[in-house]
Amino acid sequence: MTYRAPINDILLALNHGAGLLDAVKAGHYGDFDNDIAPAVLEEAGRFASDVLAPLNRIGDEHGIKLEGSSVITPPGWPDAYRRWTEAGWNAVSGSEAFGGQGLPLAINAACTEIWSASNIAFGLCPLLTLSAIEALDAHGSEELKKIYLGKLISGEWPGTMQLTEPQAGSDVGALRTRAERAPDGTYRIKGAKIFITYGDHDMSDNIVHFVLARLPDAPPGTKGISLFLIPKFLVNADGSLGARNDIHVSGVEHKLGMHAAPTCTMSIGDKGGAIGYLIGEENRGMHCMFTMMNQARLAVGLEGVGIADRAYQQALAFAQERRQGRAVGKSGSEADPIIVHPDVKRMLMQMRALTAAARTICYATAVALDVSVRAKDANTRAAAAARGALLTPIAKAFSTDIGNEVTSLGIQIHGGMGFIEETGAAQHYRDARITPIYEGTNGIQSIDLVTRKLAANGGESVWALLDELNGIVSRVEASNDPAFGTTGPKLRDALGSLERASRWLLERVTSAPNEALAGATPYLRLFGSALGGCMLANEALAARNLAEADPQRYVTLARFFAENVSVHAPSLEKTVTDSAEAVNGADAVLLA
Ligand SMILES: Cc1cc2nc3c(=O)[nH]c(=O)nc-3n(C[C@H](O)[C@H](O)[C@H](O)COP(=O)(O)OP(=O)(O)OC[C@H]3O[C@@H](n4cnc5c(N)ncnc54)[C@H](O)[C@@H]3O)c2cc1C
User: Fold this and answer.
1) First and final C-alpha spacing in the chain
2) Taking Cα atoms as reference points, which of 352, 374, 303, 524 lies closest to residue 20?
3) In the predicted model, what is the mean pLDDT of the chain?
4) Closest Cα to atom 6 of ligand 1
5) Which atom of ligand 1 is nearest to the CA of 168?
């Protein structure tokens, strides 16, 4: 079945759950006219359903092929990419000075969900190009921007991000690719990279590689890394393509999922050195990477949301068609659709509620990142930057974790047919599996949350957020709406657990770091469960005041999340605080 973008849910989440409308009203978005959002998203949904979704299965079945030193994408891919760039979808949030549409990241976030849902392997190419754009825009010289930025923004030349080497995965500081200064001010790069997404393909004339490398006199570790732009084809003074640069794909990986997105081993400088141009300053490559890291991690979180929604839509349709057993209390011989069974309803609600919560967390992150650069007032910008930094690891890890859970439930609802490739449910599950791994594993996100984001300013960002979330719970309680059930008390408990776990971790993050680190992953889950519950409750409250929304639907969804997901917060709190010693004593079990 095809994919339909859930525009109403997206708009409610964006405007009310994530706070876009309030931020626009407060003037933080300048002259951006939010009334255009529905039309942009409807159009994105149409492109996704008509062009990208039909290629999803074809891409999975055909995969990519390495012919000589060129990667061939599946049938229809190059044409879809051409239509994508011509329609301007690559340029949604790009700078207007370089041909972009200058729309907020929040609008692009909703689009990213839509691309990922319709065809996650296709969407991965522009997702990485966006990171390249951010790095070049923020740190590149005017000369480099003039040549490359417009092409990257339009998508005519997509980008890659090349960090990983065999010995340098999570530990980026261990990378060995070398850069030598050339007399003309350029650099000669030599080395090898692995796992490079869209490292080569046939969808464009040129590819702009962004490569991390180390100068001969660089200090060790992350302080000695520099970022270089290495075009596949050099660019002549008149803008035409020149000689082939010395960077080539030397192999492609055979993967569990994402078959249509090439994952390449890259040989750099085998014929004397690839010509590279420095981005930013020497040895400040990690600084450049940090600029785009929030946005890239958020985008991967949105992949989790998109693939979860795709799996949900498919499971819902299947549950309405597949007939097995009879509804409780019903007589007769005719079987009912499985959606009548409470356990199937529970699985579908779990899928929908997890997806909706992750969606709003991701959109709220995008709004914070937007306000952190768009607001006029410096204090507003600083507060939004802190909020965006805090939410980013949660957006990435919670959303991709639930992407895996929801796609797994999607298979479960299909029964045996879910395990059979023809239904497509298995593809979503396979495709989703990489998302908790790349762009910083979810373990690394949890560590970032505890050691950097929570610990910043003695937990100030967390206390500020908790205040707002407690305000939402008070409004749920004040609504006296029986349809909310025990939403209020469940969320109150969840926030209490989050606050206590935060204080417990803060006390240990420097004095007993191993204890804090042992609890990092359950803490991130606790955070997502409490935050997501409050955000869905907030959306439900907003829906009650909107003429066009169906409030009951959103109240029931918020209640389900609070009573089935947020309710686990107290046990997650206990996991954070009580199991650290056991984790740190684990060697007795693991190494016995
Ligand atoms: C399909 C695919 C596409 C990719 N695309 C790109 C790309 O375009 N560009 C690019 O540069 N890279 C890319 N990667 C690489 C990806 O970013 C890395 O795989 C990822 O960062 C993890 O590194 P690793 O595989 O070396 O795992 P490792 O770093 O070896 O991690 C193994 C396990 O140990 C844990 N771990 C590691 N260090 C710590 C620590 N300090 N504390 C706690 N736990 C730790 C991890 O969380 C993980 O569970 C891609 C990978 C794949 C599979």
Assistant:
1) 50
2) 374
3) 97
4) 196
5) 26
Closest-CA residue, ligand 1 atom 32, reads 170
Distance 440 CA to ligand 1 centre (A): 6
Give the residue, by CA position, lying nearest to ligand 1 atom 16: 438
Average pLDDT over residues 80-86: 98
Distances from the Cα of 577 to the Cαs of 445, 455, 519, 572, 574, in angstroms?
19, 17, 7, 9, 5
Q: What is the pLDDT of residue 457?
A: 87
List Cα–Cα distances, 53 to 64, 354, 402, 430, in angstroms: 17, 23, 22, 17
Given the structure tokens 């891409």, which residue do they identify?
A: 59
80 lines ligand 1 (CB under 6 A): no
Closest residue CA from atom 37 of ligand 1 = 170
pLDDT band, very low/low/confident/very high, at 91 (cuts 50, 70, 90): very high
Write out pLDDT tens, residues 310-325. 999 999 999 999 999 9
What is the structure's pLDDT at 314? 98
d(CA 28, CA 106): 13
CB atoms within 10 A of CB 148: 23
Q: Report d(CA 430, CA 443) in Å as an integer.
A: 20
Question: What does the alpha-carbon distance between residue 24 and residue 19 come to, in Å, rounded to a whole number?
Answer: 9
User: What's the Cα-to-Cα distance from 186 to each of 212, 223, 282, rounded to whole Å?
Assistant: 15, 21, 12
Q: Which residues contact 261 (CB under 8 A, 6 or more apart)?
A: 64, 121, 122, 124, 125, 197, 198
Please give the pLDDT value at position 193.
Answer: 98
Cα separations in angstroms, 184 against 180, 197, 212, 277, 435:
12, 31, 20, 11, 41
303, 439, 515, 573: the active-site residue: 439
Q: Which residues contact 326 (CB under 8 A, 6 or more apart)?
A: 332, 334, 335, 336, 340
d(CA 144, CA 123): 26
Work out the pLDDT band at 333, boundaries 50, 70, 90. Answer: confident
Ligand 1 atom closest to residue 171's alpha carbon, by position in its atom list: 29
**468 given a catalytic annotation:** no
The pLDDT value given to residue 18: 97
What's the burial of 372, exposed, middle or buried (CB within 10 Å: 0-12/13-18/19+)? Answer: buried
The pLDDT of residue 309: 98
Say what the pLDDT of residue 217 is.
Answer: 97
Q: What is the DSSP letter of 168?
A: B
Q: How far does residue 498's CA lie from ligand 1's centre (Å)?
A: 28
- 191 CA to middle of ligand 1, Å? 19
Once rounded to an integer, what is the mean pLDDT over residues 109-123?
98
CA atoms of 562 and 539, how far apart (whole Å): 13
CA neighbor of 114 nearest in space, from 4, 249, 276, 214: 4
Is any ligand 1 atom within 6 A of the Cβ of residue 197? yes
Report pLDDT for 584.
Answer: 86
Q: Is 446 near ligand 1, meaning CB less than 6 Å away?
A: no
Q: 400: CA distance to ligand 1 center in Å? A: 15
Pairing of strands 187-197, 263-268: antiparallel
CB–CB of 526/397 below 8 Å?
A: no
